[in-house]
Amino acid sequence: MDHAPASPEIAHTHVxxxxxxALECGVVxxxxxxxxxxxxxxxxxxxxxxLICHALTSDQYVAETHPLTGRPGWWETVVGPRLPVxxxxxxxxxxxxxxxxxxxxxxxxxxDTDTVESWGIDFPPITIRDMVHAQKRLIDxxxxxxxxxVVGGSMGGMQVLEWAATFPASVFAAVxxxxxxxxxAQNIAFNEVGRQAIFGDPDWFEGRYQAHGVxxxxxxxxxxxxxxxxxxxxxALTRKFGRRLRxxxxxxxxxxxxxVESYLQHQxxxxxxxxxxxxxxxxxxAMDYFDLAADHEGNLxxxxxxxxxxFCIISFSSDWLFPTADSRAIARALNRAAANVSFVxxxxxxxxxxxxxxxxxxxxxxxxxxxxxxxxAGLAA
Amino acid sequence: MDHAPASPEIAHTHVxxxxxxALECGVVxxxxxxxxxxxxxxxxxxxxxxLICHALTSDQYVAETHPLTGRPGWWETVVGPRLPVxxxxxxxxxxxxxxxxxxxxxxxxxxDTDTVESWGIDFPPITIRDMVHAQKRLIDxxxxxxxxxVVGGSMGGMQVLEWAATFPASVFAAVxxxxxxxxxAQNIAFNEVGRQAIFGDPDWFEGRYQAHGVxxxxxxxxxxxxxxxxxxxxxALTRKFGRRLRxxxxxxxxxxxxxVESYLQHQxxxxxxxxxxxxxxxxxxAMDYFDLAADHEGNLxxxxxxxxxxFCIISFSSDWLFPTADSRAIARALNRAAANVSFVxxxxxxxxxxxxxxxxxxxxxxxxxxxxxxxxAGLAA
Lengths: 381, 381
Fold this sequence. Notes:
Rossmann fold; alpha/beta; homodimer; two-stranded antiparallel sheet; 2 domains; Rna Polymerase Sigma Factor, Chain: A; eight-stranded mixed sheet; 9 helices
């Protein structure tokens, strides 16, 4: 199969930091680009900013049509006028993560200022903390001393926790959703399956596929397929597809005979058109390495010692990728740190992806928490 | 990567039926070979036979060293002298499933009696019912009119249910373990990920890899890896591996840094040495197509109308591939059919694979059920 390289060049709104960034792994990137989008208006005292942190495969196009796919923003149910993250009231910022492929510095970029050769597989390992440091540069650049809130689901929730732990004075309120303070062995295992699928693709070329003008499309699609299953629930898959067959009843070894199969294949094949395989490897690795307690002598509550931040931890009952137990562990650690924390498990049968879907209880919880915090922060209604 | 073809030729004990077998899909295989192993002794009135039905990737080597891998039989914890399936008392039979790669007719075999060219990808689709029909030929050949019991886990449990539904007079007792009466959308989805990984392998050659002297090793390994995760539980993975790193602490994008990764990679790479990719496709498809209720006007209890068989349905609490709800649905259908049925959920945190592991409660349940049935069947103790 021939495939055009993913992600034709698009001009993303961005800021470039010519002094670069020092990464946790020791490498210094000589130049740092942070691509971002904003919604709503920053108020006069710069106190109404909400940073949204995106998940593994989403990006900064939160609440507008995606420039590459033409599809709606990934959180248009949550972010917008009179929505839970109300852009009539708040100034909303979302940055493409460091290591991503939507304009922020990542493996697709030239490895040096005087070459066009891309980093590819040689892009240094990135951590969740590196992502947060890059976002902090953006926030400083925007002249925002304290974020009213940092909000994110899944890997976005990991960034929220890291923000609160690393820059407590800069985070008035934090909402980690469907997330965890570390990546579990099972989640690492699923990521590893995806990575091995990419490595096994004939167009992988040891990570130098860009130089060959191809992408490891089949491997990346398989990685997306297995990940996608983990974002749903058995109930959601059963409700959506059950055992419905496409076409006839004749037994056949091939072809997308079950609807769930063609759905998954579509998820895989559309994903490779918008996402870079080396970014996928970089970001899944960052998730695997995330272990906030390990960074604080194995004691998660120490990460939040003396925190002034107000937390709202949200999980979904049918999420088996980041189960409620993971969120409860965060809430317990925050309680031990005497933090201001509320914890809500939303009853839903939609699995991990529930945070992206129409879940009225979740939306009410988020809106209510932000409204309460706004009052405490003295933000005008 | 160069790989020798899987499964060097081994002489498996077998019986050949030269009149062949008519498959559900309409194809007639001109010759049927059933490879099998037996343990214990058939009694004088041929009433003490237990048929073990194996799961997706196991085979007839239940209780002895595997001739290919040199490893212990897959159910040596359960089948043997004074074990739950007591070979001092019962005559135990296990046949490699039709479509398999350990001696029974399957994709590796010549497609016709006058050619050496193998079926490969053209092997006709097989159903669980076809597997059971092939086993029935073996049982008839052995001169056994009624099996004392049919026992199996996972896909083996599907065969147990099909046996009871298709040949009720031939099954005194039936024990489907960690199984279901149909494959769920989520399970089909996981199988599809594995199939797509195989199809994406550069050594796949549209299923004609045997003619090229290679095997789609990387794709088949990825298929095994993702399946293997579903056989375990999050708790089991956490207990076994947690977030332990192999080697040092330095962040690195590559290498098997987490123990769970190298474990999975080992599972994948050892699997491809013993299993044929086309067999994997054939058998996963058979599981996907299994839907016993659909074969009985959508009413599972009709599959068992008037059944004389005694059933013991066993599930494991942490099995998320074939969750307890699936077993409970079988038990309910049997109750509606006024069948003799007991249903036991074993508390275990070992996931689906619990049926293969040292689970004393499970072993006691199985032994107790078989002992009770033996009494009712008038078998000498």
